[in-house]
Design goal:
Layout lengths: L9 H15 L11 H8 L3 H13 L3 E4 L3 E4 L12 H4 L2 H25 L2 H19 L5 H14 L3 H27 L1 H19 L3 H21 L4
Helix pairs in contact: 1-3, 2-3, 5-7, 5-8, 5-9, 5-10, 6-7, 6-9, 7-8, 8-9, 9-10
Length: 234
């Protein structure tokens, strides 16, 4: 039924092929999946890979485990979550496309945040900005703190789907951000640019200026794309 799987991104590949089999009707709604051992043999991968693939599908509501019985295709599994092939997503052109999607979402989120922010929200955003500086000063790349800063802005918009979508997209951009931040750490000018861009986003939200907030995010994301290109990622 299945072809052997290439070594790259095994669990994601297995998850996608299992999903394709479910969509094709090979596994009926409410039907039981083969055992881990059987799937591992069919795909030519370890049981750990199968377990991770099934876990992905479970988190997306496609399959559901039943204690002592096995894993079954969900009866409501026709509702499909957004999926992006990891191997494709980390290619240069796709990175820029995902970054463009993130730019559109974050610009709108920042605009909403500027209209809704409270004093405590502003303090949270400023604190997140300071944590980036602290991480860099301590010799770290600041990637996690960078992501947390952007999340702190999006959180103020009051729309949980902004956060969910950004979390989804950021998993494909994490490595690229790490490379560019390492490069920025070697260049005082790059480091200053990024710091100023983040500060401009925080300042526009603090001032309650939605147009400025949108513009500040767009500028930051355009520059992020340029830095990725200069790093040779895309």
């Amino acid at each position: 039924m299945f072809d052997k799987i290439p070594s790259r991104a095994l669990s994601e590949t297995v998850a996608q092929r299992l999903l394709a089999q479910i969509d094709s009707g090979a596994f009926q709604r409410g039907g039981k999946l083969p055992t881990e051992s059987a799937l591992a043999q069919e795909f030519g991968v370890s049981r750990t890979v199968i377990r991770e693939a099934v876990s992905r599908l479970r988190n997306e509501g496609v399959v559901e485990p039943r204690q002592g019985s096995g894993v079954y295709v969900s009866n409501h599994g026709s509702v499909r979550p957004l999926r992006i092939d990891y191997a494709e997503a980390i290619e240069g052109g796709s990175v820029l496309q995902i970054l463009a999607l993130r730019r559109a979402i974050e610009a709108e989120a920042a605009s909403e945040a500027a209209m809704r922010r409270t004093d405590s929200d502003v303090l949270a955003i400023d604190s997140a900005l300071q944590r980036i500086d602290a991480a860099v000063a301590a010799g770290h790349d600041g990637v996690d703190e960078d992501v947390a800063f952007h999340r702190s802005v999006a959180a103020v918009a009051g729309n949980p789907y902004f956060l969910k979508t950004l979390t989804f997209l950021n998993q494909y951009l994490h490595d690229g951000v790490a490379v560019t931040r390492r490069n920025e750490a070697l260049s005082e000018e790059f480091s200053r640019q990024v710091r100023d861009e983040h500060a401009a986003i925080a300042a526009s939200v603090r001032a309650g200026n939605p147009m400025a907030a949108r513009s500040a995010v767009e500028t930051h994301m355009y520059n992020a794309a340029r830095r990725l290109a200069q790093a040779g990622i895309c």
